[in-house]
Amino acid sequence: MEGFAGFPDGKLELVHLPDQFFSELLPIIDDLFELKVTLHCLWLIQQKGGDVRYITASELMADEVLMRGLQDASLSAQEALMEGLELAVARGTLIQVTAQHADGADENWYFVNGEHGRAAVSRIERGEWAPSGDDEPVFLQAQRPNIFILYEQNIGMLSPLMAEELKDAEREYPADWIEDAFRIALSNNARRWAYVRSILERWAREGRSKRRDDKEARKRYADYG
Question: 129 in a domain, yes or no?
């Protein structure tokens, strides 16, 4: 086992993590590659400047510290990185955006699935943001977790009957609505599809304000518990 000499004396640079990382996310991460990649992405993205903060797959592959920490007897460091990223995206910690360059080459960008990251991805989906300083046009497309993944992660095992209902919901409601409704249900500890569906139905009836924050939404939908 490789040793660690301890943190040095004096003022240290700090990384800020939300309480939910320790209380909700960390207990359910069961893969070491996912944990290492998740923590490294949170650290790197926090150091970025500007309104739209993300990390690219090529940046991660070029990160010697990360790649050295992902070395494993069964997988190459690159394979371990891709496995960790896929698991983090599937779990909903990161949002993946595929950038397609004019030459046809694809590159994956990763945003933290938090308020700022979701807002940035929504801007990309509406065509309101594109990277500056590039000599060539880039086509961006967000890859959101599908409704089956969200259900299994937040509620439980899927039955064939429920799968059909989820397919109908995925056709009827925008992907970001579905993600947000699951997030509100989780924050209220209401792990039931009926609760999620009631939020979506009310948004469809009354309209949804993009400016409503999660605290207001939780209060408004508390009667569905």
Answer: yes
